[in-house]
Amino acid sequence: MKVAIPDSPFCRPIVEHARAVCDAHGWELTVTTEEECGKLLLRNLVQLALVSPLGYGLGVGKVDYRIVVGPCVVMTDFTNMVGINFSHSGDSIETIGSAEPGSYFSAIASIILREKYELPATQVVKLTDNQKVDCVIEYSSAENPSTLDLCEEWYDMTDLALPVAMWASRVEADVEHIADAVRRMADPDVAEIAVSEELTIGSDQFPREGKISYTWSPDIIPALDEVLQTLYFHQYLTEIPAVKMLGIHD
Length: 250
Known about the structure:
By secondary structure, the chain is an alpha/beta fold. The chain has helices at 18-25, 34-42, 53-57, 104-115, 150-158, 175-185, 220-233, and strands spanning 2-6, 28-32, 48-51, 65-77, 82-86, 95-98, 123-126, 135-139, 148-149, 162-170, 192-196, 209-213. The longest helix has 14 residues, at 220-233. It starts with a strand and ends in a 17-residue tail after the last helix.
């Protein structure tokens, strides 16, 4: 069996032991971008992949996928992981720059600007040294926080967490061993990380807070339904995919 995982930093806690587990099963492991993971699964070049909701949704009407109930990445409210920074203070936002314009976060950023801030339809373009854009999607850090925290904006807009990554398999995959394998790939000591904004000394503001969860919970299903419906509404998906889980809807 062939497996794909993204090289995204926020996925590391659930793929910490992916190489060792795949080697033990004799599976072939590919490390690539989040966008490419979804494409590889769709084209049957891998049978199991850690994908975004967008990657999962691309299979609707084409391939029968199952979500593996287990390790995943779900961000709630302020996480300071990825955000939007603006290059000017004008009202018009026509282009968004991204290192990965076809990524899930690029889609969510464009949706937030259109739906929450009622800005005109925005085009996400490949960010290059000479590319002039109105705003940029990039990873955040304590030293370089974003103007708009993407997960906080999503939570404010929907009152729901943002599912970021989950395991999905094709129905013809080695399903007997998948659930246990993905569980063993994750770091067992990292189930959830609390996030609190770092403020300057003497600030009279309350720090923004949130969390990043790496384990499955029932709250994920309505959050996943919401994001899949929103991706369909904005035509990133041709249909609204059903949320099918391994061993439950078979």
